[in-house]
Design goal:
The protein contains five helices and nine strands; from the N terminus they run H-H-E-E-E-E-E-E-H-H-E-H-E-E. It is an alpha+beta fold. Strands 6-5-4-7 form a four-stranded mixed β-sheet. The protein has a three-stranded antiparallel β-sheet with strand order 1-2-3, with helices on one face. Keywords: Membrane, Transmembrane, Transmembrane helix.
Length: 179
């Protein structure tokens, strides 16, 4: 699927450049010299040599990426998180920060392995109970308002004032706000 996307991006870009120059946008297809460049670009863009490895222990989570023989590693201490954030639209992402490091991954990636997700979620709940900064979107997506013992309000329930743990202030319900 990545190959198809890379091919569409490159061929669309070449056609757009031809169109901007005032030429026929499909004319470039006739020149065989562009095809090797296109194929090499597609292979490099699709990342066939990239490998992502996810691992989690009792109190840590790690993402390791190997690409073209080079390895990059990011990890966080799950029980020492200071900031928990969620963002996105179609595909939601979770951003976790401890004292020194941070990781940002999509919920889809994190929940592929149920056992690993359980370790991550337990660390998030523990950190939230210890006072980690948790955004409203993260509270709603992680359903922290349903965890017994945590004092998070349901961010989707507009009948009660919500408490923003970042600011420590209470917002009035939407129907009682001043214009």
């Amino acid at each position: 699927m990545q190959v198809v996307g890379a091919l569409a991006i490159l061929s669309g870009g070449i056609s757009l450049a031809q169109f901007i120059d005032g030429e026929n946008p499909i004319e470039w297809v006739r020149y065989w010299q562009l095809w090797p460049i296109l194929i090499i670009g597609v292979v490099l863009m699709s990342g066939p040599t990239s490998v992502l490895t996810y691992s989690a222990g009792a109190d840590w989570f790690q993402v390791q990426r190997t690409r073209f023989g080079r390895t990059k590693c990011a990890w966080v201490k799950l029980y020492e998180l200071r900031h928990i954030d969620a963002f996105g639209g179609v595909l939601f992402h979770l951003r976790l920060w401890d004292d020194e490091r941070g990781i940002e991954r999509s919920f889809e990636e994190l929940q592929l392995d149920r056992r690993m997700w359980d370790l991550i979620y337990n660390g998030i709940v523990h950190s939230a109970a210890k006072g980690a900064e948790v955004t409203k979107m993260a509270t709603g997506l992680l359903q922290l308002h349903d965890v017994p013992g945590l004092v998070f309000d349901n961010p989707y329930d507009k009948s009660k004032p919500s408490v923003d743990r970042r600011a420590g202030e209470t917002e009035p319900p939407a129907d009682q706000q001043q214009p």
